[in-house]
């Protein structure tokens, strides 16, 4: 999972996001188009009139109106005439493209701030002298949509010889204990008497050091800390635009993956057993995030001192090397896996902008997880052929609807963790109804 967990508009589910972004080029359908779709051809000839009525376009409505405004979507269910669903979706993807010039300007700004922060941390603290940068999130996975205005930077501290104890039954959260207490260890200032590392204190120090840098920058502000959020979020004003940067503290743990991951990450038939084994030999990351009340205790450890496991580096790798064959999208046949993910992310963003009930709980990490499960199920590149974009996107949406109706979306790496935990079952079904209606009616929210 990516480092953060709060629903966001166009990011990988990382908390600390700024507000929802405006739709990128979303246009309402013209009244004329709607009229053409549902109009009934008139004629004075009785027989022709009877035949015309039998061929009259059908209007499909959602089972219930899910928008707060109670406006129902109406559109013909099937394609007609020369309509090309692939062409329509490609047009949507075109408007979601990030311009290279904007991408370059934003990246330059972010890199300058990142360098200042990492250098300050290395100078001012013993525990972060060897801190490393791990670039994660949709921007670095080439999955960014609309604007290059949100960035995620994970700053990692290597940690060897630790004991991990599950802090939650689902296997996503852990307490971290140093195997050997050493007063000279750089992290000792954050260690309890029982040897466990206090995530809350380490995050507090991390935030204070970043604030010292921000105070010296005229165009950067520090956003308020959010409950349970591992990110320190900076808001940058650059050339009349706003850029949000999430700096996430993490521990790079060099040990075997927890047992809860044993039945997850099922990529053998998709990317091969070899790739699975190689990736599982890599380290994993822990970020200072918790759920519920921070002062709640379990075995003497408060929730705010728990750590959540992250495999964002592995996600980045498999999305970059996503083909069943090595030639996929690299001289061989192109696939539409990433295109489908971008469309699903954009649909979730549009649902939020339209204030569809319960859509605020959805985030782009739900979309990414749905795609990973789909890729592990439909493993062949031919099942994601570039020319079958519409069909593949329909299938991905049906997968997502299924997870919503079950009110269960298993974490791709930790199947015992339900990413829809805490969701209202009734609202999940209403969301599924709404998405089904969008799917059956040519995505009026997207086009």
TrEMBL record:
Superkingdom of the source species: Eukaryota
Domain named Mab-21-like nucleotidyltransferase: residues: 139-321
MF (Gene Ontology): 2',3'-cyclic GMP-AMP synthase activity; chromatin binding; double-stranded DNA binding
Region (Disordered): 1-86
GO CC annotations, alphabetized: cytosol; nucleus; site of double-strand break
Bias kind Polar residues: ranges: 67-84
InterPro entries the UniProt entry points to: Mab-21-like_nuc_Trfase, Mab-21_HhH/H2TH-like, MAB21L/cGLR
Biased composition (Basic and acidic residues): 32-54
Gene Ontology BP terms: activation of innate immune response; cellular response to exogenous dsRNA; DNA damage response; negative regulation of double-strand break repair via homologous recombination; paracrine signaling; positive regulation of defense response to virus by host; positive regulation of type I interferon production
Similarity-based family: Belongs to the mab-21 family.
Protein name, UniProt field: Cyclic GMP-AMP synthase
Organism: Hemibagrus guttatus
Highest classification ranks of the organism: Eukaryota, Metazoa, Chordata, Craniata, Vertebrata
